[in-house]
Amino acid sequence: MSLNCEIVKDLVAIYTDDSASPKTVAEIEAHLSQCEDCTDYYRQYQKINEKSPVLSDEPFAVPLSYTKLAKRLRIRRILERISFIAAVIAAVAATFLFLKWLWKAGRADDE
Question: N or C: which end of the chain has fewer CB within 10 A?
Fold first, then answer.
């Protein structure tokens, strides 16, 4: 199976993260050995990846992986949903209290 440049560029991320299967790694390496454009793209990707956030300050810190980034994004989405639900509850409670106040004010006028 011979990979074209677009596919290799898409797979560079998992290749760099060591998440690719051995067969995919072999195909990517075979393509990189023959294609200068993809090799340049891979080198640029490595430079960007080296500058990415790290998980700790240890000398051999691992760059932030896609699975951990996805987990952070899921947590952020959950917190956004909780915040939205809390805002809706607060709005409903404020409306209820306002209507209750109006009802009491209306009853006081009737007496």
Answer: C
